[in-house]
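Q: Convert this sequence to structure tokens.
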Amino acid sequence: MQHPLTGKALLFYLLAWAAIIAAHANILFYQFGFDFIYSATDSLVYNISFLGFGLLYWYVVQYITPDSQGITATVLNQGLAVVIGVSFLTYLCNSFLASFGVDNPEISSFLSMSIPWRIFLGTFFLGMIVLVYYLLQYTANLKQKEKEEVELQHLLKNAELETLKFQLNPHFIFNSLNSISSLTLTNPEKAHEMVVKLSEFLRGSLGQKEAELHSLKDELAQMNRYLEIERIRFGDRLVLEEDINEGCYDRLVPNLILQPLYENAIKYGIYEQLESVKIFTRTHCTEDNLTILISNNYDSESTPQKGKGIGLKNVRNRLELIYGKSDLVTIKRERDNFSIELQIPQTTKNNDD
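A:
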């Protein structure tokens, strides 16, 4: 840490000592009756010495710290160092000023008599300086720790977000590869089409990994690639409908946040009934919020598949990590319809993050 007394702090420090110098000289001149030259010299010699000593003492404070020696040892060591330093400095100043009292017994007597209070005042002033140094050092260390903690939390948040993102696709990729394997025997052309679309989807996903947020338009385009792959797998059984407000296209959403929702709709829609499943997507936006609704019909009388719910849990966790809110996902299960509604805040702070 660099010396804290720079700029305005140094100016304030010098002004404080200037006031002490003036007060010291006035006391000697008016209270003790010494002439102006001696009064000014005595004040300047002592106080300028302590002014410089106070500045240099910062480096002692840097060496003797509570972190390295403990609070009790630091107080004792600093107290001893201050008393020794002040006593030595007082001796040097008295030796210099004694030359003024060679032919003046009054000055010689005053110098001898004033040693105790000079040491006391010097210890008091230097002690205050040391205390201020430690307070400044503590404040600086606290700010540095807070900064490091914020950076660490940011790194942990990014790491957790990356982990959640990488958990999104494995199940889908596994199913797609199984479908491609089957189609190579029954319908090679569709297998080829599915490989092309799968590569386009994965290329788009990898290309967007660096950005946490992108436009709703880009998100829907990527989801269309995903749904085209699923339509090859399920054919006419997968029906897609949408009501997209084009004014919402430029709104920002987390990357691939919708993929688990569509995967969930297909899993619990198509797999649980023989009839077709209709997946409906609707968007609505205001100045500071984007609402996305994805719903699908399902057979309420069929036995539901047991799942771990990782996809929906990841969506909820990602939104909470990014926006700091836990109420952005609403799930509704009605008799023949299942819907998930996302609230995506559009505040400047969130977008900048």
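The beta strands are 213-215, 238-243, 252-254, 277-285, 289-297, 329-333, 337-345.
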